[in-house]
Amino acid sequence: MTALTLTNVNKSFGTVEVLKDINIExxxxxxxxxxxxxxxxxxxxxxxxxxxxxxxxxxxxxGGELMNLTPPSKRGIAMVFQSYALYPHLNVRKNMSLALKxxxxxxxxxxxxxxxxxxxxxxxxxxxxxxxxxxGGQRQRVAIGRAIVREPKLFLFDExxxxxDAALRMNTRLEIANLHQQLDASMIYVTHxxxxxxxxxxxxxxxxxxxxxxxxxxxxLYNNPANQFVAGFLGAPSMNFIPASLIGDSAGTTLxxxxxxxxxxxxxxxxANVTHVExxxxxxxxxxMMQNHQITARLFGQHQVNAxxxxxxxxxxxxxxxxxxQGARLI
Amino acid sequence: MNKxxxxxxxxxxxxxxxxxxxxxxxxxxxxxxxxxxxxxxxIFREPLALPDAESFSLIGYQTVMKQGDFFLYFQNSxxxxxxxxxxxxxxxxxxxxxxxxxxxxxxxxxxxYLALGIMIPIRIGTVAIxxxxxxxxxxxxxxxxxxxxxxxxxxxxxxxLSEFMRxxxxxxxxxxxxxxxxxxxxxxRLVLPLVRPAMATVAVFNMIPIWNDLWxxxxxxxxxxxKTLTLGSQVFxxxxxxxxxAVLSALSMAILPVLVLYVIFSRQLIRGITSGAVK
Lengths: 331, 279
Description:
Membrane topology (chain B): Multi-pass membrane protein
CATH architecture of the largest domain in chain B: Orthogonal Bundle
Number of strands of chain A: 19
Pfam family, one (chain B): BPD_transp_1
Protein name (chain B): Carbohydrate ABC transporter membrane protein 2, CUT1 family
InterPro entries (chain B): MetI-like (IPR000515), MetI-like_sf (IPR035906)
Keywords (chain B): Cell membrane, Membrane, Transmembrane, Transmembrane helix, Transport
Largest interface: A-B, 27 and 16 residues
Distance between the termini of chain A: 35 Å
Structural class of chain A: alpha+beta
Oligomer: heterodimer
């Protein structure tokens, strides 16, 4: 069964079209990530699914039921917000139980579900504290706990990690992945960070300017991007784009090579001047200028390359991508 | 902490300036209070002297207690001020929430219309207000005053509160909606506690003009049983003779309740400021 179906969803604010003809399906138990640059409409799309915004046209179905006019609390969803959005005047226990009380659940059920969720998220020591007495990571766990206790058909995450520092982000990311396995629920996760998208998703939806650019599993999108935008958006460092004329190929088209597919060789076809070297220990990133085009090579291991040196890069032909002047993939 | 701020010389200068200002601000109040405890002759001979065994007199307070129903006036003033404030805060906050939270046609226009009241003094409409009160039979009731003061306080309240409500996180309100809270619960339980400092500001701004007003009580409710404190005190000020003992005593007593209300609100104000600072 499908957990969520969006059919021809359009949304405009006044004359500004924010979402254009969106069609997405989320299967039961699937982890779907909406990813795109800021302003691409991904958060609006999530708010449309949650019922916090109405669609201008199109259908939103959750679990097969038409939900266009259903208020958020009746949609069988739970949402985790970027800024945690905990109720400041309630302690952790009451924050988590409020929604259940509103639904009219019995005390016993509430207590049981809160206990289960707080155990799952290691929140038991903080259960009687107030949000102001918790750290950022703990607050985010409470926010997730508040979603879990409702046992929703669909979880919605709105950039839940962007307020956390780097180390905590990685831990919480793993926790969310674990949670998805344990709960076996459908989840939709919005982020602008392609690493989160690649690591968490069963299916990635890449959005740009309010429309879907490509949908697929992380590796599908990585290995087989439909266009230059998707190719450039996924992968870090991002794909190198070189005018094909520079290597004597048909003019107007663009050649794309992933940084890890470049290697140093004395007789390579790409000649460039090194401008900067990043020694990461495990990898070495070499940033070089090839005429007026910056290219980045990600070399495995440690390499002694100095800024200012001329280098030559080689690549294998079948690991390259070609795009026409409009950015569409040429095969 | 900033080092410059801990310099003892700076600290002394800062406190010196603040103490000086406090003294200047409190001096008239101080003079009123000490003179209210002196005999009439002592007030005129040495207005700045403290009451001593010879000049001490409670004649002013006795006059006030004897003449007119001072406690009734007191009660009237208190009822009018507290009820007006409560209505201003309640309706002001509700209107501000609607203006800042919901998108509807004419939202900006409505906001401007409400803000217009800040620029036009309500007293211009006194004749029309009196007409309306006569027509509705509200003359010489406390409701006449309460309604007028509520109308007078709303524009500024809506203006200040809507600005603050815009700053309340959208995520929090949306979290409430996803959790199934009604819009009223979101307003009363989530938003109002967060704008408490702004509410205190609005309350303080509105409280003193209402308490001190003489104009509307004189016009709309001059009857004995609806007189407010300020109006009641006027009986001691005559065209030719003024009973200064009584006037000063009445004023001294009138200060007290405002002081109490102010202390309540200012504590909220300070709490709001500090809780924001050490987030």
